[in-house]
């Protein structure tokens, strides 16, 4: 997957990324019956406490409602009022596939269908039948997991997403093809907080 033209990140944003206190563990979000059914069937894994979901102190020049992803630390922040943020552990792109830049949420889907992108098909031809069939329906085994936020720049889909995962054991690692993966329960929590147009900054 490729991201289009990137806009440089300001020095101020870089300097302020990732300042937080110990924080308070947040409860799980409210879920639909479908969510509960699929999550019960989805792969499970214990994650390190540092990658759990917390309300933390967070200093940034970005406005309230912004998503900030610290790729190196494998953490995603949803900026709240009063110098706070909700912090989530994530899996990010491998060194050769990671990206940084500014984008916005151009689309949102619950339990989205997954269609292997072209560059993935080139690396893993065995996925071609999945693409030919129109993709994999949403569900507990789908690589996009419970939710997907589709990242856009200048009205165009970057082909990058913030999404759930069927490999929760990899949270906290650099393993993806550039997308930002979250635990399914965390993807639901973030999805409930954002809207189309939400600003996304990846550093």
UniProtKB/TrEMBL annotation:
Alphabetically ordered keywords of this record: Cell shape, Cell wall biogenesis/degradation, Glycosyltransferase, Hydrolase, Peptidoglycan synthesis, Transferase
SUPFAM superfamilies, per database record: L,D-transpeptidase catalytic domain-like (SSF141523)
A Pfam family it matches: YkuD
GO CC annotation terms, alphabetical: extracellular region
Taxonomic superkingdom: Bacteria
GO biological process per UniProt: cell wall organization; peptidoglycan-protein cross-linking; regulation of cell shape
Pathway as given in its UniProt record: Cell wall biogenesis; peptidoglycan biosynthesis
Single GO term (MF): glycosyltransferase activity
Domain L,D-TPase catalytic: 65-203
Annotated active site: 163, 179
Family statement drawn from the similarity comment of this UniProt entry: Belongs to the YkuD family.
Protein name (Swiss-Prot/TrEMBL): L,D-transpeptidase
Source species of the chain: Methylocystis echinoides
Lineage: Bacteria, Pseudomonadati, Pseudomonadota, Alphaproteobacteria, Hyphomicrobiales
């Amino acid at each position: 997957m490729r991201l289009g033209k990137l806009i440089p990140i300001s020095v101020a944003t870089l300097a302020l990324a990732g300042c937080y206190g110990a924080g308070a563990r947040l409860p799980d979000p409210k879920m639909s019956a479908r969510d509960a059914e699929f999550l019960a069937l989805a792969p499970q894994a214990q994650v390190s406490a540092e990658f759990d979901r917390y309300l933390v102190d967070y200093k940034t020049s970005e406005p309230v409602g912004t998503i900030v992803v610290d790729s190196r630390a494998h953490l995603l922040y949803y900026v709240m009022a009063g110098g706070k943020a909700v912090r989530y552990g994530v899996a990010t792109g491998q060194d050769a596939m990671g990206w940084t830049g500014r984008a916005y949420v151009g689309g949102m889907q619950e339990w989205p269908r997954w269609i292997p992108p072209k560059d993935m098909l080139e690396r893993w031809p065995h996925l071609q039948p999945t693409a030919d069939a129109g993709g994999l329906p949403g569900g507990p085994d789908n690589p996009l997991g419970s939710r997907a936020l589709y990242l856009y720049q200048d009205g165009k889909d970057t082909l990058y997403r913030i999404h759930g995962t069927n490999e929760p054991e990899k949270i906290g690692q650099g393993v993806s093809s550039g997308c930002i993966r979250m635990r399914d329960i965390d993807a639901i929590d973030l999805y409930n907080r954002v809207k189309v147009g939400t600003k996304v900054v990846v550093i």
